[in-house]
């Protein structure tokens, strides 16, 4: 899966759920990324102006009236994408730069890696330790891969929502595929508690953690990987 020197077209997919306050900052940078040929925003059951704001950037916007989860939105994005290389980015990033996008894409464009997982810079360099200690915990949303790799992933309840990055990690490990882990310095994400208030934000965070934990448990037992 890593031998793809002729691949040139890159599709950047941004799943978004009620990100009207944040998506402009992400799209303004994404539009400047020289390696990105196509940008697709999946406006997933948005009740705010996420879709209309995204359309002002002249990118492709797919509106879904009912959400089935982050992973489901990502699957829909890949189905619509024309690129042979797929990159995902969260819609609520802070301090995103074109350099970050290049860092994530470069290992895949080179043909040397099947997946690239961007690690947000952590306190005391903890982000760099994740792939060395336990790469299965690298669940960052900024990642790139070949479309063939994504299409080969098992699509079940583990990959329909927040467990999808975990599915990718386990699948790559199971098949001994090369994964790069670039450190994305000064890249941050608007925390859920800030976006939705403490109660709702914390509840959503717990949901994410439960789904990731469940996906890890299930992936360890999956024979189809």
UniProtKB/TrEMBL annotation:
The keyword Ligase does not apply. GO terms for molecular function: transferase activity. Residues 11-142 form the Glycosyltransferase 2-like domain. The keyword Calcium does not apply. This is Glycosyl transferase family 2. It comes from Candidatus Buchananbacteria bacterium CG10_big_fil_rev_8_21_14_0_10_33_19. Gene3D superfamilies: Spore Coat Polysaccharide Biosynthesis Protein SpsA, Chain A. Keywords: Transferase.
